[in-house]
Amino acid sequence: MSFLERDPSTRNDEDIIMPTTNKSIHRATISLDVPAKIADVILYANNIVQMMTNNPAFPTPTPTIAVLNAAVSDLHAAETAALSRAKGSATVRNDKRTTLVSLLQQLRGYVQSVADATPETGAAIIESAGLTVRKIPTRGKQAFVARQGALSGSAIVTAVSAGPRSSYEWQYSTAPHCEFQRENGLHFARERFGAIARATPSHPAVTPTRVPGAAAGTAARCSR
Questions:
Q1: Is the separation of the CB atoms in 90 and 82 below 8 Å?
Q2: Which residues of 182-201 are buried (b: 16+ CB within 10 A; e: fewer)?
Q3: In 3-state terms, what secondary structure has residue 6?
């Protein structure tokens, strides 16, 4: 079994990856983290009102700061009444909360549109409104990685641990092309090796198939 190093004279135009210097700007988005407790909702909304009042980044907020401030005051009054346990006061309080949250959602749309207009400063604009920028999820390490070995005609395949007393099995194919065939995560291996390793009808191609495997960091070398 082997990975054969491709003859440069047979390289196709599509195999050549051109470098690029373009850098995309990540779009900052708003995470509207409205608290569960009424007292915290009031504090949360009050902070937004204070941060956006006379803020030059938001000349025409929707809804207006006056409308938002009035909704905060209404909720505060309703919460005070609900604490007295007067009949029907809790229902009124909950309705006032719903109204305030709806206004905050409208305001989120407005602030997001302002941030999108200048994406390079979008995060700072969002935070200047007293809102939170949504965190970018981090990608975990690939569970299966294949790379060209140090020796010509070899490949090193590394997989994370599938638990104790596990093993990995490897299969090879006589298909006249070097292509990894596995679902859920192995297509990148085919793309990576496509330009540097090819097999001919007389030289079978290695096709590793992952099954529950060995300890973390274990590398399997496939050579002729």
A1: yes
A2: eeeebeebbeebbebbbbee
A3: coil
Residue-level pLDDT at 152 = 76
Domain boundary among 133, 162, 181: 133
Residue pair 223/172 in contact by the 8 Å Cβ criterion: no
In this structure, what DSSP letter does residue 37 have?
Answer: S
In this prediction, residues 110-126 reach a mean pLDDT of: 96
Task: Residue 183: give the domain boundaries.
Answer: 8-15+140-223
Residue with tokens 């330009």: 195
In the chain, the number of structural domains is: 2
Picking from 107, 133, 159, the residue at the C-terminal end of a domain is: 133
Claim to verify: residue 166 and residue 104 sit in the same structural domain: no
In a domain, 24, yes or no: no
Residue at 83 is within a domain: yes
User: CA separation (Å) from 1 to 167, 188, 191, 200?
Assistant: 20, 21, 20, 12
Token pair listed for 92 = 């009124």
Confidence band for 217, pLDDT divided at 50, 70 and 90: very low
Average pLDDT, the chain: 74
Asked if 47 and 92 sit in the same domain, the reply is yes
* pLDDT tens readout for residues 184-194: 443 333 333 33
Q: Is residue 3 part of a domain?
A: no
* CA 160 – CA 216 distance, rounded (Å): 5
Q: Is the peptide bond before 59 cis (omega within 30 degrees of 0)?
A: no
**CA angle, corner 90, sides to 85 and 91, nearest 5?**
145
Q: Hey, CA dihedral for 52, 54, 60, 62, is it positive or negative?
A: positive
- The answer to the question of residue 20 being in a domain is no
